[in-house]
Design goal:
alpha/beta, Aspartate Aminotransferase, domain 2, 2 domains, 4-stranded mixed beta sheet, 4-stranded parallel beta sheet, 14% strand, globular, binds pyridoxal-5'-phosphate
């Protein structure tokens, strides 16, 4: 029997008390008669830009669309290369491929899940146009290292912040940069009731270009300035996100408390590595990810104890059938090892202390048995 599910959105909305605010938002839009490009979208975009400490927010139909449209707005296209982390969700690579450019993977740093900023220079070629740091699991990539690198080579920086709403790096909010893409997929730290995304930027020209791209290349009905697409965030999702946004910091605080409890309880257990947090980083714990060579057995023991777990991600992107013909075929041993060793534990703002201690006890007894 499941005692602690990996993640349960119904419970998350119920236990945190936000369900009624979500219901009211949905009903308000349903009865408004306005469903696309209206006041709810404008209000959410303004609130989210302010939350990020930035000037503009352009919301889109998904996180993938936010990344792809930004790459297009930055002029990335066929023949170009974009540096991406090897260890990430496929959703970081696909938008690069969609523009006709080539994703060039870079391994994670030793002992980290994030792109190794010391290996970036070696990945640059005359075709490199941009670098895409991914703030994976909620931990930001070092902004100083990324900007030093990008400035050195004259590259654009597009941050994939799909897992890092509210995180801070060296005191600055993730989202305060030049071009930062978010996903509001339901399970993210800030999630809609369906697909949703956004780009946050300090650049009025980039924001303007994104507004055109997401709306058929048009700012005025039936005047099509460029070949755009349809990737608008609808009024219902905007209203739901605006209702949830004021809770985000408290929810991230709860995630942090749970993560600290896990790390305190698991540090030093045989055969387990707890996730590292840089001293300058304010982590928002989209996932709490352990590493262990006994992954299959640990997952099985936890399943028997009624604790849900997931693997983020079981197959490295370069090993997926979608990228089987990627040339040249990269050798990425650290990435492949992570795919074999990572295991994500339940975490979320709705989890009670009782649920957290059930996870702690189950992981401790399994690790002591397996590591012995
Ligand atoms: C969720 C996610 C995406 C894609 O976002 P969608 O809204 O699902 O399109 C991209 N990159 C990362 C790292 C993600 O976690």
């Amino acid at each position: 029997m499941t005692k602690v599910p990996f993640f349960d959105l119904r419970e998350m909305h119920g236990a945190t008390g936000v369900q009624e605010e979500i219901d009211a938002a949905v009903l308000r839009v349903s009865r408004s008669g306005r469903y696309i490009l209206g006041a709810e979208l404008e209000a959410f975009e303004e609130a989210y830009a302010a939350y990020c400490g930035n000037a503009y927010c352009v919301a889109t139909a998904s996180g993938l669309a936010a990344l792809e449209l930004t790459l297009r707005a930055l002029g990335v296209g066929p023949g170009d290369e974009v540096i991406v982390p090897a260890h990430t969700f496929v959703g970081s690579w696909l938008p690069v491929s969609a523009t006709g450019a080539r994703p060039v993977p870079v391994e994670p740093a030793e002992g980290s899940f994030l792109i190794d900023t010391e290996q970036l220079d070696a990945a640059v070629t005359p075709r490199t146009r941009a670098v895409m740091p991914v703030h994976l699991y909620g931990h930001p990539v070092d902004p100083d290292a990324i900007h030093r690198f990008a400035d050195r080579h004259g590259l654009a920086v597009l941050e994939d912040a799909a897992q890092a709403h509210g995180a801070r790096a060296r005191g600055r909010r993730v989202g305060s940069g030049h071009a930062v893409a978010f996903s509001f997929y339901p399970g993210k730290n800030l999630g809609a009731l369906g697909d949703a995304g956004a780009v946050v930027t300090d650049d009025p020209a980039l924001a303007d270009r994104l507004r055109l791209l997401r709306n058929y290349g048009s700012r005025e009905k039936y005047v099509h300035e460029i070949k755009g697409t349809n990737s608008r965030l609808d009024e219902i999702q905007a209203a739901v996100l605006a209702a949830k946004l004021p809770h985000l910091d408290a929810w991230n605080d709860r995630r942090r408390t749970i993560a600290h409890r896990y790390t305190e309880a698991f540090t030093g257990l045989p055969g387990l590595l707890t996730p590292r947090t840089e001293p300058w980083a304010e982590h928002v714990w989209h996932q709490y990810v352990l590493r262990t060579p006994h992954r299959t057995l640990l997952q099985q023991r936890l399943d028997e104890a009624g604790i849900g777990t997931l693997i983020h991600y079981p197959v490295p992107v370069h090993r997926t059938p979608a990228y089987a013909n990627h040339t040249p075929s990269p050798t990425l041993p650290r990435t492949e090892r992570l795919a074999d060793e990572v295991l994500s534990l339940p975490i979320g703002p709705h989890m009670s202390d009782v649920a957290v201690e059930l996870v702690v006890d189950a992981v401790r007894s399994a690790a002591l048995e397996l590591g012995a």
